[in-house]
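Weekly modeling sync, notes
Attendees: S.R. (lead), two postdocs, one rotation student

Agenda item 3: backlog of single-chain predictions. S.R. asked that every request posted to the team notebook include the full sequence so nobody has to chase files. The rotation student volunteered to paste the first one in as an example of the format we agreed on. Action items at the bottom.

Example entry:
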Amino acid sequence: MSQSNVLKENLAESARVVAERIGGRAPEVGMILGSGLGPLAEQIEDAVYVPFGEVPHMKTSTATSHVGRFVCGNLGGKCVLAMQGRLHGYEGNTAQEVAYPVWLMHGLGIGTLVTTNAAGAINEGYRVGDFCVMEDHINFTGRNPVAGLEPDGIAFRFFSMLDAYDPALRRLALQVADELGIRVQQGVYLGLLGPSFETPAEIRAFRSWGADTVAMSVCEEVIAARHVGMRVLGMSLVSNMACGIEGASPTDEEVLDVARDREADFARLVTGIVERL
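Predicted structure, as returned to the notebook:
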């Protein structure tokens, strides 16, 4: 049996289990809550929880602050399925294992993905605590979740990444932020494998390429989402200045501290966006 057909069968089994656990609900929006941003899940009403470890064929989170469960319920008047925590390549997961829950969401009928993370600012015009809407990305992980898949089974192997981050969703996010008085940027995100933070020399190179923010997630998820035709909105919380900028030397503790400080505005922003989807 081909690799793609095995993956298709695994995804179907995973989707059946999750659908049973969420009681037949039909989530419209999928969400991935990144480092320090998981508390938004506590605002999901009438919530049902499904730990990643209880979903067949799916890995679980090991990163700090990543709870590692699906949360299904109501947010902003919509039924959402949120990942409270994500899977990273630096945890030892393959690109397909990182992408697996996105394909799973698609299998449950979800057509829109909101993916979030904490990121370092390469653009010196950004401030710690800003939010940044992703307009495009540079995948510097060296990996692609679709590589190795045969065309049949999931979706066609070759697909465009033009407007990978949906322009209408980006405009909506900027509009909601403006109405709420929340400072937001729009820029190009660069994704790395991690877990080490970037060197100052790397940051200088990334800046010359046009990258505005950098972190260790998102790209593989977005590639998987576009592979199956999902609309994507990507947003980062600027949790630190990138290494070497303004003397910065990022730490995981700094990232989580900033996320805690911006938790309320993050919840307001995401909920406001979901309300209008």
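Discussion: group reviewed the output briefly. The longest strand covers residues 231-241.
Action items: rotation student to repeat for the remaining queue; S.R. to check formatting next week.
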